[in-house]
Amino acid sequence: MKLFVKGDIDGFFGLALDNLVQVLLIEALMTGVLGFPRAFVYSRVLPGVAVSLIFGNLYYSWQAKKLAEKTGRKDHCALPYGINTVSLFGYVFLVMLPAKLSAEAAGLPQPYMAAWKAGLVACIGSGLIEFAGAFVAERVRRATPRAALLSTLSGIALGFISIGFLLRTFAHPLVGLVTLAIILLTYFGRVKFLLGLPGGLVAVSVGALLSWLTGIAPQGAATLAPGLYFPVPAVSGILEAFSGEYILPYLSVIIPMGLFNLIGSLQNIESAEAAGDSYPTAPSLAVNGLGTLAAAFFGSCFPTTLYIGHPGWKALGARAGYSVLNGVFFTAVCFSGTFSAIAWAVPVDAGMAIVLWIGIVISAQAFSATPRAHAPAVVVGLLPSLAAWGAMMAKTGLRAGGAGTASNPFSDKMIEMFHSSDTWIEGAFALEQGFIFSAMILSAITVFVIERKFAKAGASSFIGAAICLTGLMHNYSVQQSDTVMNLSPHYRFFIAYLAMGLIFVSAKWLTRPEKEAE
Fold first, then answer.
1. HSE of 331 in the Cβ direction (CA atoms, 13 Å)?
2. Which of 60, 75, 83, 300 is the most exposed place for a label (fewest CB within 10 A)?
3. How far apart, in Å, are the Cα atoms of 25 and each of 148, 165, 222, 309, 348?
4. What values do phi and psi take at 172, rounded to 5?
5. Is the pTM of this model over 0.85?
6. Which residues, 6 or more positions from 451, have their beta carbon under 8 angstroms from its beta carbon?
7. Which residues pair with 484 in a beta bridge?
8. Does residue 8 contact residue 318 with C-beta atoms inside 8 Å?
9. Cβ–Cβ under 8 Å, residues 439 and 389
């Protein structure tokens, strides 16, 4: 099989655009939401992103070539690989932003450094789970109901990705709705533009043009940063992160997100096999984990993953070369600083329809890829994530209104004010802490109840009770400008989950199936 064929050009544009949107988001969220200096992002973070991309892209290209040698076929397509969208949003809003707010409340200088260290810890944790799990991923997948995994991932996609970018779409309707129309035509309508132009390329190009014409872009003067930005090991940052308080508070995010990345990548390998490309599971997953670890070692806080859509890239004619081109492109633009010109000329708004589409697809998959009878369990799994997003929005609104300062801190009185409008905000704060765990547990319980496996439903409830004893779920404390996880036993929720479990365990003797009852 040749290293480059014509179809690799189309594949490269599609895969590079996916990753380009992710890198644009990294730059925008780190400088805008987290307050990182642009110089830090371009010199310390983006080179780490490039290392992780070139590492995995070259391996999966080589893997496709080896498979071609083994089978004698020339149509094998490399596994698509890049930055994990859900982890990007999850780590920014659930790990890095809380760490930054805590540092600000404590009066620490350069609070963005706390966000960076917390992000490094989360990325390393995800990488270790992905690497170690490569050898047991199949067992984990079989032991966990699919609805419990996908609905939790779907909740994050729906709340932290889809709704956020839907609001941005309607804030800039001309750019947002026109690019959304192009994406809907291409990906849901399954049509192609004339001259074979990729739909994603058309959407981003039109979005960038409209952004300039409507004054959305450029934002400020050109902030070009040409130069050589070679990756620098983040050893000191990692050591400080692991010696500080950046591990335990975020385990409730790190562990489930690592498992999701692992299982999601496994499912994408299965998708490739269904398309005729049978890649070995363990090394494919292990290299993905190593790519994530490489990202963290060189300063990036964002895990990598095997992308969905392998059959689509293969149908475009992509083989091994599109993966090489993707890795080389991002290495060139990140190491040379020319990505600063791209970020200035192409605002996030130009690609937000693609991110919105990703969120929609992930959310829809929770329903389409699970048994129809498990649909209620999917809905149950969505609710904690949406509650967590709502809690974050409520606190953001309070801070925008002047609360969360030394003179006007968050307090229990704030909760009482919410009560006056019949808003039980403490329930949202409780769900926010460890919401990934609670979503998985509640969804799994619902699946087992639907299947009348009451003993397993009880066991899931007891697991929830045990997690509440660690403080990794539902327990929070009110700080000056945020509500944060309180790592001490929460006995009220422990007793509640224990009581749930006892009800399910005793159902064998206290209930009978409906037909028998009739």
1. 14
2. 75
3. 28, 11, 18, 21, 7
4. -125, 75
5. no
6. none
7. 477
8. yes
9. no
Q: What angle do CA 472, 473, 478 make, to 5 degrees?
A: 90
Q: What confidence tens digit (pLDDT) does each residue in 148-196 have? A: 877 877 888 888 888 888 998 999 999 999 999 998 998 888 888 888 7
Distance CA 474, CA 471 (A): 7
φ/ψ (deg, to 5) at 410: -65, 145
pLDDT tens-digit map of 473-513: 999 999 888 888 888 999 999 999 999 999 999 998 988 88
Domain definitions of the chain by residue range: 7-370, 374-506
Residue 325's closest CA among 39, 3, 33, 96? 3
3-state secondary structure of 32: helix
Mean pLDDT, residues 293-313 taken together: 90
Exposed (0-12), middle (13-18) or buried (19+): which is 426, by Cβ within 10 Å? Answer: middle
Highest mean pLDDT among 154-163, 276-285, 321-330, 406-415: 321-330
**Encoded tokens for 508:** 């064998």
Determine the 3-state secondary structure of 207 from DSSP.
helix
46: closest CA among 83, 15, 4, 85?
83
- Give the helix/strand (H/E) hosting 344: helix 339-345
Q: Token pair 């670890």 is at which residue?
A: 293
Q: Residue 223: what pLDDT?
A: 61
Q: 184-213: per-residue pLDDT in tens?
A: 998 888 888 888 787 888 998 999 999 999
Residue 154 contacts residue 378 (beta carbons within 8 Å):
yes
Mapping DSSP to helix (H, G, I), strand (E, B) and coil, where does residue 304 land? Answer: strand
What pLDDT is recorded for position 271? 76
If we measure between CA atoms, which residue out of 217, 467, 439 comes closest to residue 342? 217
What's the rounded Cα separation, in Å, for the pair 38 and 21? 17
Question: 245: helix, coil or strand?
Answer: coil
The token duo for 303 is 């895990």
Closest CA to 26 of 70, 75, 85, 73: 85
Tokens coding 16:
């590079």
Out of 204-218, 219-233, 291-305, 309-323, pick the least confident.
219-233
N- to C-terminal Cα distance for the chain?
Answer: 65
Q: Pick from 407, 460, 464, 509: which is nearest to 147 by CA?
A: 460
**Identity of the amino acid at 220:** G
